[in-house]
Amino acid sequence: MTTTTHTAIGVLIGTAVGNPILGFGLGFISHYLVDIIPHGDMHMRDSNNLVNKKNERQSHVFVIIDVALGITLLNILGTVLSDDVTRSTVYAASIFGSVLPDAMVGVNDLVKSKLGRLHTRFHFHFHDLLCRKHGDSKLRYSLAAQAIFIVGVVYFLS
Questions:
Q1: 40, 41, 46, 88, 101 from 140: Cα distances, Å
Q2: Domain boundaries, given as residue ranges, for the chain
Q3: What are the pLDDT digits (tens) for 43-63?
Q4: CA–CA dist 108, 101 (Å, integer)
């Protein structure tokens, strides 16, 4: 899933729980569960779950745009929500928990540690669970579905 989608899920979790520790934990767990849904990005990695050289530039541009959209989503929610709860500890913790697993994979791509490799294997076990059995979805369809979901979150919360 995109960082923006995980961010939107973190906001929903923050809305539901009202506790930063619970929000962080549920956000973290939600990341793995949501990543089970095929979302069209398997072609960007090689068999070691690293960005393959062929798609390296595309992957980096994708991540930069995605993070910018996630920040934009938070700014939109900050103006739409009446009490600007997006700046609260609960939302920050829930969002941080929901995007942290991808950040950990990215750090492992740079640092390469045993613990990082262990987490990367764990992460992609969930990420590829259905894709290994049924194939990945088309990226454009996945991005369209995620965009609809994100718009739905903004609409629901406004």
A1: 8, 10, 20, 33, 23
A2: 3-151
A3: 666 555 555 566 667 776 777
A4: 11
